[in-house]
Amino acid sequence: MLKNITLLCFSLLCTLPLVAQDDLMSILEDSNDDSETREVTATFKSTRLVNGHTTEMRPSGVLEFIISHRFGRLNEGVGQLFGLDDSQVRIALEYGIWDKLNVGFGRSSVGKILDGFLKYQVLRQTKSGKMVPISLTAFTSVAVATGPGAFLESSIDNKFSQRLSYSYQLLAARKMNSNLSLQVMPTMIHRNYVFTAEDPNDVFALGFGGRYKLTNRLTLNAEYYHQLAEHSDEYYNSFSIGFDIETGGHVFQLHLTNSRSMIEKGFVAETSGRWSDGAIHYGFNISRVFNLKAKK
């Protein structure tokens, strides 16, 4: 089922026309394109859409420092200042080993989780020559829960391997025109340890996302992850909306989401609140990019 849905989404993306880009920003974005391949640039403003990754890559030698913040739920009321009294943070470093290979490492206060990932760009969308209709990126990560709540008290083995979880994604995106970009994200999460028999070790989901450029420095973003199989009644599908604000070397992202966690294992498989109940978290991501290689 996952395969059929994924193929259908890829087909829809590939059949939509790529609209000509005439504005000045588009010309600047494409100024470094190779004359033969004409690679499409700036499909998204950041390597993150909201919670999840985009097909964007950091070039070789570029280091990105990211701080992600999630506050409590809006439905916590005035006593908790609508969630602002409660906050969780993830701090991460991401580095471009090559233009097509990125590595990253982060630490989340939610669950005291350490995570690392590899991200490889398989295809890059082009506009002429041998046309490639989409950008395609493979993503995999591993997370280890280091906090005392990683196990139930009744857990007997308490092995290190039980603290591990893995995420696998294919990110397929298409820049429709200078304003609109769309992305689909087939996802698999594997958790070595789950708390109840109703929670599956493997969670399959299909994500959808996109961005619309409002100005040259402001975009509207949204993403949604739909779990494809039966899952615990305690968890729900993740939905997030937000804005990207570009200010020089920074990209500042403001958003609303029903997911507290900032890694794939959490927001895809373990989102515990619903928008309809007011279980909405205000959050932001802020990043700073450093070029560690001398310019040629």
Stretches where pLDDT falls below 50 for ≥5 residues?
1-35
Number of domains: 1
Mean pLDDT: 82
Task: Profile the largest sheet.
Answer: 12 strands, antiparallel, barrel
CATH topology: Porin
List keywords for this structure.
296 residues; mainly beta; Porin; twelve-stranded antiparallel barrel; 12 strands
Question: Can you give me a brief rundown of this structure?
Answer:
Helices cover 9% and strands 44% of the residues.
Question: Can you give a write-up of this model?
Answer:
With 296 residues, the chain is mainly β. It has one domain: monomeric porin ompg (Porin, Beta Barrel), CATH 2.40.160.40. 9% of the residues lie in helices and 44% in strands. It has helices at 2-15, 24-29, 264-269; strands at residues 62-73, 87-98, 101-108, 113-123, 135-145, 164-175, 180-191, 202-215, 218-227, 238-247, 250-257, 281-291. The protein has a twelve-stranded antiparallel β-barrel with strand order 1-2-3-4-5-6-7-8-9-10-11-12. The N and C termini lie far apart (49 Å).
